[in-house]
Amino acid sequence: MKSKKIANNGSKHQSKKHIKPKLLIVADTYEPKVDGTYIFMKEFIKRTTNDFDISLLVPRYRNQKDTKHLHFVDVSKRFVLSGYSNVAISFRNLRKTIKAIKENEIIFIQGPALLSFFSMFLGRRYKKKVVSYLHVLGWELFEKFLPIKFFDFFLRMTRRMSMWFYNFNDIVCIPYAGVRRELVKSGLNCRAEVANLGVDIKRFSPSTHKAKSKTAIGIAEHIQVIGYCGRVSKEKNVLTLLEGFKKLRGQSDLVLLIVGDGDPEIMDELRRQSNCVCTGFVDDVEKYMQAMDIFVMPSLTETTSLATLEAMSCGLPVISSKVGFIASYLEKGFNGEFFPRENSTMLSIKIEKFLREPLYAGGLGHNARRKVAYSFSWDRSVKKISRILKKVLME
């Protein structure tokens, strides 16, 4: 009925608005938890409002109210994984999920947890086009929480179950080509399309005055700042960074800056270090990155690692574990350095080298900025994903 009214009023603008494909973005994270997935959604929505009629189905982490295009599902206070409360299993949540899926043409899923997996299944059940973006390999995330006694069994089951759900997709978007081999090996049967993520290089730019950047966040200008940004959880391995930091000499002139929040036990351990500053989740991440002298990504598992790209875009020398896509875009001795996973001693040696040789560290940071500015762009990334979504709708 509504479409007839629009067709009869002779308005070109309204007609164009009406024919935009209805797209539902489903994610297992939302405000106030600002992570890589949330940033991706924000950048995607900003650039595609003229292409799609977008709605969101996301967890309710505080007293957010439903709107026409924003649907919240309740979360469980008991089931918390990697610092995130998972969605509650209830008829109310199921009804809301089904309703949101039925009202849209394309279901664009951010995963990989309960709400996303159910939406893959229900999207196929109600004959919608289903596309997922693989921000993280679910089994690599879950394996850090599996009981050691049954580790191999649970890991195989987690892989198998993840692939069972992902095969309900028409297309799975992946951040880099190397992921495809891992997915096919694990049992993926649907198409996998590469679509790199991007960085806002204007927002994440090098500090023009490092001393002022430090004092702006309450750190004395002579202090050397070693930083991390992201979720604080077991798989992010931030405690290895803490142990490496403790081994550094001259602690009175050093600060460990942790930008993010997560596991309460890990956060408590970090706060017990007198010269460690923990910000919690913040919107102005770039302000804290610009105050850093060195950025460390100690994670045990990553796909793209937006935080690392953002640090590089800020011109920071990066020390990272060799995981995921980082192993491709971070080049040893050119725009960063690697350290062996969970090896706090080698990490401290790398940090000491950067502190001792500021010209070398500065050169790495300069090359890191150039790498991101040349190779990573949100506009390019979102255009590629938008083409994939429109293509799948035509099939």
Explain what you see:
The chain has 395 residues and is an alpha/beta fold. 43% of the residues lie in helices and 17% in strands. It has 17 helices and 15 strands. It has helices spanning 2-8, 12-19, 36-48, 91-102, 114-125, 138-142, 151-166, 178-186, 210-216, 238-246, 264-271, 285-289, 306-313, 326-329, 344-356, 358-375, 378-394; strands spanning 22-26, 53-59, 70-73, 75-81, 84-87, 106-109, 129-133, 171-174, 191-194, 224-229, 254-259, 276-278, 294-297, 318-320, 336-338. The strands form 3 sheets. The chain has a 7-stranded parallel sheet, sandwiched between helices. The protein has a 6-stranded parallel sheet with strand order 12-11-10-13-14-15, sandwiched between helices. A two-stranded antiparallel sheet has the order 4-5. Helix 4 (91-102) crosses helix 5 and helix 10 (238-246) crosses helix 15 (344-356). The chain is globular and about 60 Å long. It starts with a helix and ends with a helix.
Give the CATH architecture of the largest domain. 3-Layer(aba) Sandwich
Radius of gyration computed on alpha carbons: 22 Å
User: Quick one: overall form?
Assistant: globular
User: How many structural domains?
Assistant: 2
Q: Could you report the average pLDDT, rounded to the nearest whole number? A: 89
- According to CATH, the homologous superfamily of the largest domain is Glycogen Phosphorylase B
The class by helix and strand makeup works out as: alpha/beta
- Cα distance, first to last residue? 27 Å
Major sheet summary line: 7 strands, parallel
Number of helical segments?
17
Ranges with pLDDT <50 over ≥5 residues? 1-17
Kindly estimate the percentage of residues that lie in beta strands according to DSSP: 15-25%
